[in-house]
């Protein structure tokens, strides 16, 4: 099934995430593979024709837009699929029932992926006979642009399924990360929400405004963490002593911040919503995500170019090294 | 003093931060302004000659490297200064004594800035006669590259001093943010450390590794937050309903993450240091910050280009609007 030009990908669900994945698969899957879309939405074909082009850029050699197949039943959608990816409503009952039906009609070795941001595979798979094939493939929105995919298997998901899923995304230049346990909210959101919580607290306490928090992040850790994540950055901050050196130097301040987190003007945090929501509305109105996504793409292109360049340099240096080893061993 | 070509800037302290600020001022201050450097370090002149060029790129029209003045006493360093910026050791007693001596020799209206990452201006100024001029100007490391400056005044700092400081940095394309109270760790570090804490916890609990956390952040919130900070991003995530809509949709998951933060495999967090430090060392060795800074600059250049472009478009649309208003009012 990994032969890229004969791959049947089926998407179930056509909300923002589903359509964004559709755009991704269209442009990253070599023709004559097939992309099938299924949803219980009325006038599905017309809806897809009208809304998908907003996300989509046609790429040479990949599946043409005109070749999208709209399925009229779940059975039709999944019967020949190699990959079945659901981006349906965030509702456990709906997902449980869906997978039972998918299992009934889908080929035995099809990969089953859920885009859920919170319902673990182990709960979704409760009623399945074969629980080894299902895992969460949680994107960072929007998935046709952002490289991250959190792969969150249940304890029943097989290693082979995890491996095949990783291979699929890596081959398409994406960053699939295997999350080792079904943690609440997985990892990316937990990290982001930890920062968001402190941001809300500081706004509520009157230390900074909503837009000042954004300016702070946009002009410091945003660009830094695009290039080197927090551990790598703080490890660098400690010089040759690494992360340990960093904590030796300013661990005291770090601990003070941790101890004080959420405690500025303690007790005020109840009822932050009205203040913070209002400020966001006043400052931003309705955000133009098209513009944001365009600039994000430029940033990601720079990062990709740099990483590809670094990878090429490593390859060259590896091949020079093995050449010189060959020469040494032939002496 | 704001006449840019006749500005005397004095830096006290020549650690990494001090030298990085020296590089910034050299390239952002029009000649024939003067940059004076003072430190109690032995062989200061030789040291500056040897280490500063690592940070520095010569710019046309700005102070040439050869014109840096090395002061041999504090009195000499500050007597004619318009701006005095200290980046000395993080030690309250040293800073308290420094400002008393600076006050004795410096012109009455010189701006006094501390680069401290944690010692509030109100504590540093305790022994000063005039406490209105001192404020913290906390950079995000390294300041010759990163745009953020947190301006953290004490309750005694005058509004005029805050305003002059903001004007100085804005005129140089930087992002000075006025922090409204002397919060422990200020704001940027509090936000970053909140995320770091959860990251450490998840690594310690075995959910992800050090390098996986970095890959996650580098391929999701890093690039996203470089373009749009957390509030703006989640406000956009709520569509036309904004941040409130975002919380209506997934506030449940957010709250679950907040409630669960630090609680995966609860109780294990004691003694995370050894595991996390070791993993960082093994995975990263000594980080090449030159490479990191070069790529960060590219990202910041893209962001600056986009923001300048957006600002130009706003100007054009404003001027078109005022033209049309003029025409309307002259009818």
From TrEMBL, chains A, B:
It holds the Pfam family 3HCDH. The keyword Lyase does not apply. It comes from the Eukaryota. Residues 307-331 are annotated as: Disordered. Residues 185-253 form the 3-hydroxyacyl-CoA dehydrogenase C-terminal domain. GO terms for biological process: fatty acid metabolic process. Keywords: Oxidoreductase. The keyword Kinase does not apply. SUPFAM superfamilies: 6-phosphogluconate dehydrogenase C-terminal domain-like, NAD(P)-binding Rossmann-fold domains. GO terms for molecular function: L-gulonate 3-dehydrogenase activity; NAD+ binding. PANTHER family: 3-HYDROXYACYL-COA DEHYDROGENASE FAMILY PROTEIN, LAMBDA-CRYSTALLIN HOMOLOG. Belongs to the 3-hydroxyacyl-CoA dehydrogenase family. This is NAD(P)-binding protein. It comes from Massarina eburnea CBS 473.64.
């Amino acid at each position: 099934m990994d032969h890229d030009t004969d791959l049947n990908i089926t998407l179930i669900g056509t909300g923002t995430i589903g359509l964004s994945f559709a755009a991704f698969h269209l442009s990253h899957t070599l023709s004559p593979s097939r992309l099938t879309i299924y949803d219980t939405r009325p006038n599905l074909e017309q809806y897809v024709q009208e809304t998908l082009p907003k996300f989509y850029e046609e790429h040479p050699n990949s599946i043409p837009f005109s070749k999208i197949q709209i399925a009229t039943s779940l059975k039709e959608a999944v019967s020949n699929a190699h990959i079945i990816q659901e981006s349906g409503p965030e509702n456990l009952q709906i997902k449980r029932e869906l997978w039972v039906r998918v299992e009934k009609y889908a080929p035995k070795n099809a990969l089953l992926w859920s885009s859920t941001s919170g319902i673990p595979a182990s709960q979704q798979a409760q009623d399945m006979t074969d629980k080894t094939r299902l895992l969460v493939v949680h994107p960072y929105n929007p998935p046709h642009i952002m490289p991250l995919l959190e792969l969150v298997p249940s304890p029943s998901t097989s290693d082979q399924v995890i491996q095949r899923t990783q291979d699929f995304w890596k081959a398409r230049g994406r960053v699939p990360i295997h999350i080792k346990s079904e943690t609440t909210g997985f990892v990316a959101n937990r990290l982001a929400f930890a920062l968001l919580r402190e941001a809300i607290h500081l706004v509520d306490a009157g230390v900074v405004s909503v837009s000042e928090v954004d300016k702070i992040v946009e002009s410091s850790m945003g660009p830094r963490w695009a290039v080197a994540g927090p551990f790598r950055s703080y490890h660098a901050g400690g010089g040759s002593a690494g992360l340990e050196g960093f904590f030796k130097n300013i661990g005291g301040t770090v601990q003070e911040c941790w101890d004080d987190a959420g405690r500025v003007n303690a007790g005020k945090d109840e009822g932050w919503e009205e203040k913070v929501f209002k400020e966001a509305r006043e400052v931003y109105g309705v955000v133009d995500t098209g513009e944001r996504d365009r600039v994000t793409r430029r940033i990601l292109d720079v990062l990709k170019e740099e990483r590809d360049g670094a990878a090429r340099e490593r390859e060259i240096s590896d091949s020079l090294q093995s050449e010189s080893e060959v020469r040494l061993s032939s002496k």
